[in-house]
Design goal:
With 396 residues, the chain is mainly α. It has 15 helices and 4 strands.
Length: 396
């Protein structure tokens, strides 16, 4: 199930990125088009066949007189991977200093001048994790989990394999038309398999951490309940049996998938942390649909602001916060004063959100301040929900 979740996240992420960077419709290039110094010299659009008037096709928007050189390919590579062009240098300064104006102008139709919110968000996420990987910043994967649980899981897996082989041999032995020599060979293998299974069960009884959590003895202990031990001063102390102590340490919810998830975190926390980090990258786009309803609540009675407005606001805001996280991390790696990093991390986000609210929605100072206060609480709720989803996706 974890492979399905990771594949889904990768597919959605790749589809979003491709839609942002790519676009347009295409019928494919035409064969035999003349070339002049690495440029097509076409009279009609190579994408849709419409007669060209000017530097771009007025039907599909594709550029006229396309390049066919390695330099043009390298330009497309940088543009596709990093989305660096004139739009970027117009968008980033406005995102930093005038986020509300950027959001409002984009909503009102100035789309060609700026990088789209989703394009900027995907770029910022990609850049942050690329830099983190280069800098060696990742979750710890060498955390020691419950060794006993790992050994019990390994023993259970081995027992299942031996029992499956035993069942297969017994089924083969039950065939009436077996050759005597073949029957004797299967019987010998069956004896060896039973001996191997007995040896594993014996090891389970002799090695403490390989003992099964459930069984006749544990059932009796569970039925008997906790024992009561007398202290020297005459008072009593409740002693939990082994199964109850395990339940208190690990936690039991009586919901199978939750208990399985808790058991995975206890058994191999390093692997689960790695999955958490990977899923954050793949499913970071979920922050947008999770956040939009909460922003809508702040403006539920203002009908002129719709869900689209809130989505643009949220996506640009998340892009800024991602780039801020990247900047603060790089400053920390460069040896910047810790006080500066802490001050920037605590002060810049609320100031930016305040300016973003005022500019995007045309609010007064008081309206922006009280919405900032409520939105700060909503952000904590969204992050908590997002974390729970990541834990669920990692445990499946």
């Amino acid at each position: 199930m974890s492979e399905i979740g990771e594949a889904l996240g990768t597919a959605v992420e790749g589809g979003l990125f491709a839609r942002v960077v790519g676009g347009g419709k295409g019928n494919g290039p035409k064969e035999g088009q003349p070339l002049e110094k690495g440029h097509f010299a076409e009279d009609a659009c190579l994408n849709c066949g419409t007669a060209l008037v000017g530097t771009h096709c007025h039907s599909c928007g594709q550029q006229a007189h396309l390049h066919r050189t390695i330099g043009a390919f390298l330009h497309d590579l940088l543009h596709g991977a990093l989305h660096f062009d004139g739009k970027t240098w117009r968008t980033l300064p406005m995102l930093l200093f005038k986020p509300g104006e950027l959001t409002r102008r984009y909503i009102e139709g100035e789309r060609a001048r700026f990088v789209s919110p989703m394009g900027l968000f995907l770029f910022s996420i990609f850049l942050m994790f690329a830099v983190f990987q280069l800098a060696g910043i990742s979750t710890p994967t060498d955390i020691q989990g419950d060794t006993g649980a790992q050994m019990r899981e390994l023993a259970a897996s081995e027992i299942a394999k031996v029992e499956e082989r035993q069942a297969s041999l017994e089924q083969d032995l039950g065939q009436p038309d077996l050759d005597p020599a073949e029957r004797q060979r299967i019987q010998q293998q069956l004896v060896e398999t039973k001996e191997q299974l007995d040896a594993i069960h014996l090891a389970e009884e002799q090695v403490p951490f390989l003992k099964k959590a459930a069984g006749p003895d544990s059932d009796k202990a569970a039925a008997a309940g906790p024992s009561v031990a007398a202290k020297p001063d005459g008072s009593t102390d409740v002693m939990l049996n082994e199964d109850e102590d395990l339940r208190m340490n690990v936690g039991v919810s009586d919901i199978e998938w939750i208990d399985n998830a808790l058991d995975k975190w206890r058994t191999n926390p390093g692997l689960m942390l790695y999955k958490l980090q990977t899923n954050f990258y793949k499913f970071s786009w979920l922050l947008i649909p999770l956040s939009v309803p909460f922003v809508w609540l702040l403006f539920a009675w203002k009908w002129r602001f719709g869900a689209y407005d809130h989505a643009i606001f949220v996506t640009y805001s998340l892009s800024f916060m991602t780039l801020l996280t990247l900047t603060v991390t790089l400053l920390g790696l460069a040896g910047a004063p810790q006080a500066l990093i802490i001050a920037g991390s605590l002060l810049i986000p609320p100031i930016h959100i305040y300016k973003h609210l005022r500019g995007a929605y045309g609010l007064s100072r008081f309206s922006a301040l009280w919405r900032l206060s409520v939105l700060s609480l909503f952000i904590m709720v969204v992050l908590l929900i997002f974390l729970q989803l990541l834990l669920l996706l990692g445990a499946l």
